[in-house]
């Protein structure tokens, strides 16, 4: 789909921000016990005038290398705030999650910037959940902890997005830093299918620890009924994935409950 001539420049990023060529799609997160909607996760997409619709895998690393991650995060936060306002006007009060990158955890100005955006739109910071990649702690451990504490003090909710690598020490996986853990991708799908044969392993231990500390546990990337059926027995409290709903226009989530 994308030829060898595919190239992005700083000017592409400028135009994307200026012309609102980036936009959000959202995927609902459901409670496993009740089937009700607990919130939604927002994902960024880029409608490039030359290359068409770009998924984040094609441009996030480029933006990070150009040291413009902070601009993107603020753009996404503002787009999320606008989405939250529209959803609340339609009667939907669930929170929206956005993803932070590793550089964001070393950005000491981020908490104040996000707080300002929420205040501008008259929103409670608790309506925005900030998902933190576990790998960020490998690069910015001290700064990440400081940024998380600052965000929590402002009222934001946070989630640890773990892909299976044990990086964050157990003493960080507490309500002081997080409200929930999210575990997903191929690892959780394979684990769920082999539950009876493989025992608890990393996933089970992580979920059990989260539960013992009052944190929620969300399985991400649920794509089939077999996986979904195994999650409650693992201790997961919520799930999201293509089986439930693919990322879509936020307006399409109106009325989910």
Care to describe what's here?
The protein is an alpha/beta fold and 257 residues long. It has one domain: TIM Barrel (Alpha-Beta Barrel), CATH 3.20.20.450. The chain has helices at 10-18, 60-65, 69-89, 110-120, 136-153, 186-193, 195-198, 201-212, 225-234, and strands at residues 22-31, 37-48, 52-54, 96-99, 128-133, 157-162, 180-184, 216-220, 238-240. Strand 8, helix 9 (225-234) and strand 9 form a beta-alpha-beta unit. 37% of the residues are buried.
Range of helix content: 25-40%
CATH architecture: Alpha-Beta Barrel
CATH superfamily: EAL domain
Low-confidence runs of at least 5 consecutive residues = none
Average of pLDDT = 87
Give me the side-by-side strand order of the main sheet: 1-2-4-5-6-7-8-9
Enumerate how many helices there are, as a single number.
9
CATH topology: TIM Barrel
Distance between the first and last residues' Cα: 37 Å
CATH class: Alpha Beta
Quaternary assembly: single chain
The total strand number stands at 9
N-to-C SSE series?
Answer: HEEEHHEHEHEEHHHEHE
Q: What sort of overall outline do the alpha carbons produce when their principal axes are compared?
A: globular
